[in-house]
Amino acid sequence: MAQKPSIPKGTRDFSPEEVLRRNYIINTLRHNFELFGFQPIETPSFENSSTLMGKYGDEGDRLIFKILNSGDYLSKVSEENYSAKDSNALTSEISEKALRYDLTVPFARYVVQHQNEIEFPFKRYQIQPVWRADRPQKGRFREFFQCDADAVGSQSLLQEVTFVQLYDAVFTDLGLKGTTVKMNNRKILSGLAETIGASDKLIDFTVALDKLDKIGEEGVINEMLSKGITAEAIERVKPIFKVSGSFSDKLSVLNELLADSEIGKQGIEELQYINEKIEALGLKTVTLDLDVTLARGLNYYTGAIFEVSAPKGVQMGSIGGGGRYDDLTGIFGLKDVSGVGISFGLDRIYLVLEELNLFPEQAIKGTRLLFLNFGENEALYCLKAVQSLREAGITAELYPDSAKMKKQMSHADKRNIKFVVLAGTQEMAEGVYTLKDMKTGDQKRLDLQGLIEALA
Question: Is 137 annotated as a binding residue?
Fold first, then answer.
């Protein structure tokens, strides 16, 4: 009995319609990346294990897919490690390569390896799949695409301004109105921790603060207390729990709280600079908002932090994010190369567009016109027209078999092909084609030029 086919858990097949819709998003991203001066690069789907391991923390290392060495991968295993069943030691002996976990570390490796060929500042974009040995669940897959844009080699805050504009351009083109780019700064968070005498508990403080919208003020306070942050210290930062108003209003609250923190004031100046530039330039559909509780990526972000939320009413996590990092390439020996980067969540953006019914009809660019097949002579007559239509940029095809007309019409209907062409002996004698609209049932008799004009 034949084995029932299947795919690994956490992976997906995509139908033609899904691929076309995903390509619509990807093409929109690619167009805007290039419009903003970002250059495309690609890196291998797998890297040397030494490139990836140790860059994501213990949890990340466990989620990296390792690739077995070719041939007899046990031949070089030490008897001691084999007998001891030491998985960590064995892994390094039987696997020298691994599937990439993200696009950021391979990008850092690329910059260091090609530093003599790159013109800095270097602006790159990358749209490729990544793999994580995670537990599959709704919205979390083991294979998925990342869509990243980064600018390295410049400390100018104009880069951050550009990324806010890039988010605005992409979501405007996708018709996704009401998207919010939430922004904070790592220096603000460091300043707040410093102000309350909890610099040594920065991570505990910010991780708790980041949960404010999920567990509320009381929950945040209880978590901070459990981490050893005093009630007196928490009292001093309570104003940020209820901070509201415009970007400038929130900066005013921070100015008071961080009056004695140099690093905090530096963070405020950076946020103010970016906001002033955005206010002067204007945004089309995206709103820029200061979120003083935003604390993503603390292990590597050193300045601005971004997180993008979907329009209100859509139950979806962040659909994008990023930030400023001061030493991305330091892990490979190239020190002091500052950069800033953002990502777009392709799968989540897809789900939001689908929920809001925002995919335009032209996003699904399938066959527009199917010629019915009534026999050898009629097929040749139709193929000449198909050739001319394709040269005019119109997607058209001929049904390959001279099957019953009902079957051919059903085929067109199931594939959502909008038009069919009937061409029998009478049409051939007159040099015309009968064009039928599958939705309305309307029919027209047109010559080849009229057919092209009707579908152009």
Answer: no
